[in-house]
Design goal:
Elements (H helix, E strand, L loop, with lengths): L1 E2 L2 E14 H5 L4 H4 L10 E12 L4 E4 L9 H7 L6 H8 L9 E3 L5 H4 L3 E4 L2 E4 L5 E5 H8 L15 H5 L3 E4 L9 E6 L6 E7 L4 E4 L22 H18 L2 E3 L8 E7 L2 E8 L6
Parallel strand pairs: 4-5, 5-8, 8-9, 12-13
Antiparallel strand pairs: 1-2, 2-3, 3-4, 6-7, 10-11, 11-12, 13-14, 14-15
């Protein structure tokens, strides 16, 4: 898929399982299990799906997925595959990690930044040593001092090495990254999560991070119990979904195990999925 100067390539970055009830909040299991069946532990499958933006001068990676080198307890809780699927997917696309010029992190939860570092020679090192990594400053401040509710989501060894190596750069609010890439702030899931909008005169794709983890989160009541401010999530969903319908945006799903992206429609029952893409369209 081409937008502006960038070729957009979907990158597989690992898999995990999370509690289905936590993923769907107040929505009863009798409804959410239709689209996201659970295992015997009531967990549903998630992908961590990054996005590569490639131009003549840039190779930009959005989020780095779950990563590898997790201990046995973590692997058991989340059923994490220990292969470095991010590196494998980049290799399939003939990308060397040293070629990545920029890494945009939507937020610092472990399933979005776990692959930002690698464990090498008994220490954590940046996985993309020639890249600058970008995060919202207010979100970084929260990650350094999380609440009791979200403390387990931040694993500092997965992002502190970026600071130590002078690679982490701060964004302050909604901003343009370049002529085609901009950031939209969302404060429902966590403080100052940044959604990444890639747009030109004819097409827009929104990397929707944890505002819409699955395609099945498009209906308004489907809000994760993980969210710190669910009413802000609701307000953000209303605003963004209206714009997505009006301007025919493609929403890119970071965690949906089957659906990579979709457009959105509105009917008498509210917002819903319109056209589904298992892979990004070739246009």
């Amino acid at each position: 898929m081409k937008i502006g100067n960038y070729e957009l390539i979907s990158i597989e970055a690992g898999n995990l399982f999370l509690d289905g009830g936590a993923m769907f909040g107040v929505v009863p299991k009798t409804l959410w299990q239709r689209t996201n069946p659970s295992d015997e532990l009531n967990r549903v499958a998630l992908k961590t799906r990054s996005l590569l933006l490639q131009s003549e001068s840039k190779k930009i990676l959005i989020d780095t997925g779950i990563g590898s080198n997790w201990d046995s307890k973590f692997q058991k809780i989340y059923s994490v595959n220990e292969n470095n699927l991010l590196y494998e997917s980049l290799k399939i696309n003939e990308i060397n990690p040293a070629e990545i010029t920029d890494v945009i992190l939507t937020h610092l939860h472990f399933d979005h930044t776990g692959g930002s570092v690698n464990f090498i020679n008994s220490k954590w090192e940046p996985a993309f040593p020639n890249a600058n990594y970008y995060i919202q400053k207010k979100h970084f401040d929260l990650a350094m001092n999380p609440t009791e509710k979200d403390r387990a989501s931040f694993i500092k060894e997965r992002f502190i090495p970026l600071i130590e190596n002078g690679l982490l750069k701060f964004i302050d609010g909604e901003a343009m990254f370049d002529d085609y890439i901009s950031f939209i702030q969302s404060n429902g899931h966590t403080n100052s999560m940044q959604l990444v909008k890639i747009s030109d005169s004819s097409k827009t794709l929104l990397y929707s991070a944890d505002l819409f983890p699955f395609a099945s989160h498009i209906p308004l009541p489907y809000i994760m119990a993980y969210d710190l401010n669910p009413l802000e999530t609701l307000a953000d969903k209303k605003k963004i979904l209206k714009q997505a319908v009006d301007e025919n945006w493609i929403l890119y799903f970071e965690h949906d195990p089957e659906i990579t992206a979709a457009t959105v429609s509105m009917n008498l029952h509210g917002f819903g999925v319109n056209e589904i893409f298992e892979v990004l369209p070739n246009e």
